[in-house]
Amino acid sequence: MRFGVLGPLSARVAEREVRLNGPRQAKVLAALLVEANQVVTIQRMVDVMWDGEVPGTAVRQIQDAISGVRRNLQQCGAPPALISTHQRGYRIGLEPGQLDLLEFQQERQQADRLAAAGDQEGAAAALRRGLACWRGGALADLSSRQLEVEARRLDGYRTAARRQWLTLELALARHVEVAEELLSLVGEHPFDEGFVGQAMLALYRSGRQGEALELYRTTRRVLSEEIGVEPGPPLRELHRRILAADPSLAVPAPVVPGRAVPVGAAVDGPPVPRQLSAGLPDFTGRAAVVAQLGALLSGPSEQPNCPRVVSLVNGAGGVGKTSLAVHVAHSLLAEFPDGQLQADLRGVGGQPSNPNDVLARFLRALGTPPERIPADPDERAAGYRSAVAGQRILILLDNVHSAAQVRPLLPGSATCSVLITSRSTLPGLDGVRRFALDVLDEEEALALFTRIVGREAVEAEPEAVSAVLKVCAGLPLAIRLAASRLVARPEWTVGRLADRLGDERRRLGELAVEDRAVRASFAIGYRDLRPDEARAFRLLGLCEGPFVSLPAAAALFALPLPDAERLLAALTDVHLVQAPRAGCYQLHDLLRVYAAECAQEQEPEVERDAATHRLLSWYLHSSAAASRVLNPARRHVSLAEPGPEWAPLGFADHATALAWCESERTNLVAAVAQAQRTGRYEICWKLPITLWDLFTLRPQYEGRIECFEAALTGARALDDTEATGWVLNSLSSAYQAAGRLEEAADCLGQALEIRRRLGDTRGEASCHINLGYVYIELGQVARAVGVLELALAGFAAVGLRVGVAAAHGNLGEAHKQLGDFPSALEHFRQALAIDQEESDQFTVGRGLSNLAETLCLLGRYDEAAEYATLGRTTNQQAGNRVDEAVALDVLGRVNAAAGRRSLAEQQWEQARAIFTDLGSPRAAEVGGGS
């Protein structure tokens, strides 16, 4: 079995060429092979497959392509488990002898080991074997933007390997043997002064001095005409020495065994800076961004008069920007044989480095004597650009504060690349490829923790490990510190560490080891904020929901929307706040703890209380506005006028109101809990009442019972009897939806007693209608009819027509349960007639589905189909998924009765999918349980 990507894509099993059915199968196989033995995510495959708009069936097409590749491989004799399925994607497992790329990588690693041990002959032989794996340009026959990036990356590795090999061959005095190879490489890379210098040296030492000088003249002309630069100092110096027949250029003495020439080192010339700091031996994850950065930094230049690429890795403190940059830089050593420069620009937590000082350090590292370094900043920058011109140098600028710091440090040579890290996005820096570094995903976080503490400890306490990682929330610094504390204290278990981290008040204090601490990392960025930005950050720590919208933040800050947006944008730019989508902002869990600490320490209590009250009041008023649109006929809570410093949202229609409620649901639930905890009991009981319609429309949403139980606590804390009765009625609906029918009936009994005592006829009728439905679900249908008739009478007495319609609807359901379909039909018709007059789309849709279902039971299929078709459309428009599924079920029964079984099965499948998504047991009843 042999696969190949170092040339046109190839796949052979048992000496048979594997047939690939079309470009899709070829692309997914290529995506697996270039990341062999790693899980390739579905999203990565989607990116490879489609350069433009991604179809809605993308995942299915990827799955089909994978299945096709597996089938074709197995037909040729490949093992079934060759391509394995994982939670996030797929993996192909291969040995080096089965894939040319793995074999090439293995030989390069062997060459590095042998060269480091002084075996230059062995290192050169290993590189020759590795280069023999190539059959042409990588993935030469595939058209895909992402695969083209991969191909450029792989081709860059080939070029680097050729450079390493030739460096060794020259050190081994094989100048005659490699001269033609070098001339060929110069033809492929005419701007690569490293290859030109090696070719000139090989020609000179082969007795071809004139050709060496002619090559210099040709290169100088090409550089001048094509990109407007002169050859760099190393090449100019080599030219001078060849002209002078410098004796030091003579063929070197034979290699002394045990004395190594570093792979990639220059054979002659000025000092080569190797300034990269040490990488992390346990660096984990980030495979996709590592590959992207590697391909970009080592790829061809897009413009001849600027660096090949300037890449910016930006992200929050502790997210691992520097570790990633150093890791990537070390992986590219062979791509930049003329050196690597690194500087910490100290962009956070103090006085940023002066770029003029950094230029001086770089010039010294490049061989410029200190006395010859210009004092004038412009002259110094020009000297730096001259020193790196034509050289393949990687420049790593860490912790950059601003674009102004970077500009003087950018080379003007297309042979150099620049890698930047910053907490800021540096919006003022043009022509930059930006990579926003996020936290580690769950798999990467677990892998990092495991590499530090050991697999045995992780496998012994998996639940405790999950608790620790949940607290760290994917932040690499937090994971490292937590793991380091555990390793440093052998007597601790993971469970003990989890317990210590479980207390939010001491959490940041626990995540500290010697000179490293999560709190200190956050504080560095916080101290650099302007006063209004710092206040906004502190106040965000008061939000207990998972995110905050722009209007909510404006209420929290007591600012107009444009001012709030400006502050949030500033916090987002320095990664103290994340913006996962437009108008939505959130803090990393640990940053939220830090923000809350800052608010507690630096924000006066009266300001904290006022901000919290504004936010919770905004949620209440906005939710109440949505409720009035979703269900205008029901009883709504009365509210005080909004405060002068904030304005609630308004909603134009049902769809807009429902969409807002759905998007803010987790925040609204959190606001109820916060109102209860902080003693804001009026908000605590009223906010859940405004959410009644959302929970009715979306019964699968969590938090319903908790909200209404908190509301009951709030109402009772206020000793508000009317509010208590109201909440008990709503809580009964939550219990009923959860199948806790006895508790629902008990709540309604208490609520009825309160309503009667208050003389609230409408409230009594509301309790009766809900109690009647509970009795239906308890199987006490005859009892339900009597209670529902009381509800009907009560609503009629107060003239509440929508209540009358609801009572008719529930009576229709009760009679249907009793098998009295004609009576059920009559009640449903009366309910629908009223609802249509009141223009309530939600209840109209429900009524249509109820009528359709009853007509179907009566065998009146044509009428049932008519009502079900209209009901499905109406319920879709109203967002009523339950009754949309009922209408689909009826349509399936009608089509099954007419012999259209295939169509019926399709409609039943759609109905089951909706019921299943909603967590409804009715999924098993679709199609009569068929």
Could you name the key traits of this structure?
alpha/beta, 41 helices, Arc Repressor Mutant, subunit A, 930 residues, 5-stranded parallel beta sheet, Rossmann fold, Serine Threonine Protein Phosphatase 5, Tetratricopeptide repeat
Describe, in plain words, how this protein is organized in 3D:
The chain is α/β, with parallel strands linked by helices. It folds into six domains: 2-99, Winged helix-like DNA-binding domain superfamily/Winged helix DNA-binding domain (Arc Repressor Mutant, subunit A); 101-140 and 151-249, Tetratricopeptide repeat domain (Serine Threonine Protein Phosphatase 5, Tetratricopeptide repeat, Alpha Horseshoe), CATH 1.25.40; 287-436, Rossmann fold (3-Layer(aba) Sandwich); 442-520; 537-777, Serine Threonine Protein Phosphatase 5, Tetratricopeptide repeat; 840-929, Serine Threonine Protein Phosphatase 5, Tetratricopeptide repeat (Alpha Horseshoe). It contains 41 helices and 16 strands. The strands form five sheets. Strands 8-9-10-7-11 form a five-stranded parallel sheet, sandwiched between helices. Helix 18 (462-472) packs parallel to helix 20, helix 33 (741-758) packs antiparallel against helix 34 (761-777) and helix 39 runs antiparallel to helix 40 (881-897).
